[in-house]
Amino acid sequence: MNPLVWGLAYLTATQIFAILSGAHLNPAVSGAATIVGIMEWRLMLCYMLAQLLGALAGIALTYAAVDETRNNICLPPTLSHVTVMAIELLATFFLLLAYCAAWDTRSEGKYETLPLRVGFVYAALSFAIYPGTGAHFNFFRTFAAAVVNNTWVILWPYLAAHAAATAAAAFLWRFLFQEEEPEPMET
Fold first, then answer.
1. pLDDT at 113 over 90
2. In the 8-state DSSP scheme, what is residue 183?
3. Which stretches are transmembrane (predicted)?
4. Taking the CB of residue 46, how many other CB atoms lie within 10 A of it?
5. Secondary structure element (H or E) that encloses residue 34, with its range
6. What is the enclosing helix (H) or strand (E) of 134?
7. Residue among 80, 60, 62 nearest 132 (CA)
8. Which whole number is the average pLDDT over 98-123?
9. What is the C-alpha to C-alpha distance for residues 98 and 128, in angstroms, rounded to an integer?
């Protein structure tokens, strides 16, 4: 699929769900929000359960919509696991920095532009990495694809990359860039 299409789809989903959930379409986003201080741990776990169920439903719909003979639905071409991990780590790191910037108190009053800012960052990063990794940015998306394809060996580079990117971006933002505590999300 075209990286621009992925970016516009993410922009659209962010626009729809930003008012409801802060556009936490991804467990890395929810994890970063918790580390930065705008989300409580219990709420993060609820969001992550919903994100996992959403990923499983999305891949099931994709599987139903494509030709049955197609293999590796939503899984990338084969690169070395270390290469996939490095690429996904950097891209997810930059995506999460875009979210951290949006949550920062200095961005107050600019939340309505979150879908555009994050959507275009997602599209740009997708253009850069899609051919090599599939531009997942989201471990639950990778896990759901592994379930449908019964391919488990690809999971660890994505899990390691997304967990490391979440911790690195959120801690970097919280302890180096954040000037004051953000407003916690309303539950």
1. no
2. P
3. 45-66, 78-102, 114-133, 153-177
4. 13
5. helix 27-36
6. none
7. 80
8. 81
9. 16
Per-residue pLDDT tens for 48-91? 999 999 999 988 888 888 765 566 667 666 688 899 999 999 99
CB atoms near residue 6 (< 10 Å): 20
pTM: 0.88
The rounded distance, in Å, linking the Cα atoms of 88 and 158 is 7
* Domain range annotation of the chain: 3-177
Q: Give residue 69's pLDDT.
A: 52
Q: What one-letter code names the amino acid at 187?
A: T
Q: Does domain 3-177 have CATH number 1.20.1080.10?
A: yes
Tracing tokens 């004051």 back to the chain, one arrives at 180
Residue 94 predicted with pLDDT over 90: yes
Give 86: exposed, middle or buried? Use CB within 10 Å, 0-12, 13-18, 19+: middle
